[in-house]
Amino acid sequence: MDLDVRRLRVLHEVALRGSVTAAAAALHVTPSAVSQQLVQLSREAGHELVERAGRGIVLTPAGQVLASHAREVLGAVEQAVAGLAALRDGVSGTVRVGAFASAAGALVARRPPAPGRSTQSWTYG
Amino acid sequence: MDLDVRRLRVLHEVALRGSVTAAAAALHVTPSAVSQQLVQLSREAGHELVERAGRGIVLTPAGQVLASHAREVLGAVEQAVAGLAALRDGVSGTVRVGAFASAAGALVARRPPAPGRSTQSWTYG
DNA sequence: CATTTTTACGACCTTCGTAACGATG
DNA sequence: CATCGTTACGAAGGTCGTAAAAATG
């Protein structure tokens, strides 16, 4: 039981758009896939996350709580991806820090890695 | 490409323990599985994350950066799980907020949900 | 009856362990 | 040569789409 990112994204999208169909369209999958992921996620979470309301669905309180946490997780993942992209573009990194020290410093508004330390993580982007 | 939580946990464990074998033991899987997950993760990340150093391995700078972000993601997931557990134990939730208002207030050291709002997330545990 | 969600089912993909191999001190 | 990491490969499990069914206004 690991609360997979993919499933959390599904829940987030359902919460955001208010329907399985709309979430499926946004995620470029079928409503069937979204529905199945929700079943699996609620099994993992130990709570019913959505319930039918008329022709659509609404999130249960547990679903709203988990959706809120899902946004945190997705944000952290997004930051990780941004960190890798920054690394790829040479904003950070061992070798290029010296070459781009001043430019990087202005860009990130943070101190560059201390000399002698081969790597250091700081705010990028 | 979604930077799966399971794979980030593998990287974190490798970073923490300094070897594939030790990480595999901690995760109750074989070194083969850890090695394959690292290959897949580095493919997704677009960076080499580890490199052989003598008989063991060391993280590359990119690996260290991603491992740092992995800790953020894992922390967020952990909070989500804690949130669900708290919900299951009745610390939060729509119906029980009124009944346990003062106890919950003391327990969480935060204001309880405003009356009239059916749900609200705040610090628990 | 149109729309939305869910379920049954099969094809495809992923992941793991075993076993063999390669690398290193 | 003992130990650590990687690769080949097959079995087991997971995920998705199609199609059919169920629910609702």
Automatic annotation (TrEMBL), chains A, B:
UniProt GO MF annotations: DNA-binding transcription factor activity; transcription cis-regulatory region binding
First and last residue of the signal peptide: none
Domain HTH lysR-type per the UniProt entry, residue ranges: 1-60
Keyword terms of this UniProt record: DNA-binding, Transcription, Transcription regulation
Keyword NADP (UniProt): no
Similarity remark: Belongs to the LysR transcriptional regulatory family.
This protein's name: HTH lysR-type domain-containing protein
